[in-house]
Amino acid sequence: MAALYAVEPAFQARLLPATTVLQDGGVTPDQMTLLAAGLSVGEGAALCFFPEHNALWHGLLFFLFFIMALNAIDGLLPRLTVCSQSTVRF
């Protein structure tokens, strides 16, 4: 079985067209991070409050794959944009 790091370049290459569209739309890496975090909290809360709903559990694998894609896009966006430390605000 291939390690996750061995398939990462191919996975990122498949996400590059979507990343380019997001970059052209003005989406920032921070927005992708907040989206992934918010969706993860929402899914976790749904599983916590409704553990008897099997659809939530069956969809968990697809959800985690989607979150992994969002995190990969989060890493690709700075490579496509001019992103410097001086633009980061806390």
Automatic annotation (TrEMBL):
Span-the-membrane segments of this chain are 55-77
Q: Which UniProt keywords apply?
A: Membrane, Transmembrane, Transmembrane helix
Superkingdom to which the source organism belongs? Bacteria
Family annotation (InterPro entries)? CDP-OH_PTrfase_TM_dom
Q: Which Gene3D superfamilies match?
A: 1.20.120.1760
Record protein name field: Uncharacterized protein
What organism is listed for this UniProt entry? Answer: Actimicrobium antarcticum
